[in-house]
Write a structure and sequence with these properties.
The protein is an alpha/beta fold. It has 13 helices and ten strands. It has a single domain, classed as Rossmann fold (3-Layer(aba) Sandwich). The strands form two sheets. Strands 5-6-4-1-2-3-9-10 form an eight-stranded mixed β-sheet, sandwiched between helices. Strands 7-8 form a two-stranded antiparallel sheet.
């Protein structure tokens, strides 16, 4: 498979650095086609081994505007799985605006629909002020809002699978963090292909989990994908970045450690999840407002919507490049 590689010479150094990790320690042998081959091989292996996508599935990709999610959206369509996108605008100033623009540009390029939810529009407040007002860390709020929006968009628009752009470095660093702090409540719940639960929680898959962050970036560069280069301001100083650095040092000394670490975990996690399922004491109920699973009478999203949403229904947008429509869907 050959990718169009615009201005290869100017990107040569980047490719060589990126390619060295998986293809060769000899820069002269590294080239974009071989790198593309390894990336596609890894994604195919993940899809097959973990039964991520089945015939008849309708796929949506969670798209942030960063390299991993845009590359995944592009690759999923390239591999023959027509996939639409779902995006959450967090209201983090220019960072969120640029992320949204890059996401919309990919919708245009792929000619696929994009569902999106805008926090500042729906709640008239960005994540920073929301966090301050409700006294909850921005990343915890962000995770909750994204999970809710993604699930709801999938359920209401008939997508059976939600694919996310988590790569090998994300999985390994999250696992290391959970282990170092023995976060038993999260430790065994992570997976790379989690089946749907009931009619409200879509199946979740991570087709990039065997690709390193560098490989995902290489795919984005090779495919001429324009992504947001800045990191989310709330990720700066996050422990996961330190864990990624530590794991990279281990990987340099002992190649393939990250893959062994994550694959070893996945084998054990499946058994642990099954044996722990009977001990689950926390009972889920259905939110009295939206009907989605919740541990409390009203789910956290609906509580926010009641407080900040102006009393009306919460609006989700759909941008459809095929009809050049940008409409709001009230739910
Ligand atoms: S959780 Fe936190 Fe991320 Fe959300 S607020 Fe930004 S850093 S985007 S990976
Ligand atoms: Zn609810």
């Amino acid at each position: 498979m050959t990718f169009a590689v615009p201005c290869l010479r100017s990107r040569r150094d980047t490719y060589l650095t990126l390619a060295m990790q998986r293809i060769s320690t000899d820069p002269a042998q590294a080239n974009p086609d071989r790198l593309a081959y390894f990336i596609l091989k890894s994604v195919n292996e993940a899809l097959r081994e973990f039964d991520m996508l089945r015939e008849g599935d309708r796929v949506a990709v969670a798209v942030s505007g960063g390299k991993d999610s845009l590359a995944l959206w592009h690759l999923t369509n390239k591999l023959g799985y027509p996939a639409d996108g779902i995006h959450v605008h967090l209201g983090i100033g220019p960072y969120s605006d640029v992320s949204f623009e890059k996401t919309k540009a990919m919708a245009d390029r792929l000619n696929r629909r994009l569902y999106y939810f805008s926090l500042p529009e729906a709640f008239r407040i960005g994540i920073k002020d929301l966090s301050r007002t409700v006294k909850r860390p921005p990343c915890s709020l962000c995770g909750m809002i994204k999970r809710y929006v993604m699930n709801r968009a999938c359920t209401e628009h008939g997508y059976s699978v939600l694919a996310t752009g988590h790569n090998l470095d994300d999985e390994a660093s999250a696992l290391l963090g959970n282990l170092l702090h023995w976060k038993e409540e999260y430790l065994w719940k992570k997976g790379v292909a989690l089946e749907a639960e009931g009619s409200h929680l879509a199946k979740k898959v991570k087709p990039f989990f065997l690709c390193s962050e560098k490989e995902a970036a290489a795919y984005a560069l090779m495919s001429d994908i324009d992504y947001v280069y800045d990191e989310c301001p709330y990720s700066i100083g996050a422990k996961t970045l330190m864990y990624k650095g530590l794991l990279n040092r281990v990987e340099d000394e002992s190649p393939a450690t990250k893959i062994a670490f994550v694959k070893g975990y996945l084998k054990r996690a499946e058994k642990e999840r099954l044996s722990r399922a009977d001990d689950e004491t926390e009972e889920k109920t259905l939110c009295t407002t939206c009907g989605y699973p919740s541990y409390t009478r009203q789910c956290n999203f609906c509580l926010l919507a009641a407080r900040f949403g102006g009393g009306g229904p919460v609006g989700f947008h759909v941008y459809d490049p095929t009809s050049l429509q940008d409409g709001i869907v009230k739910s």
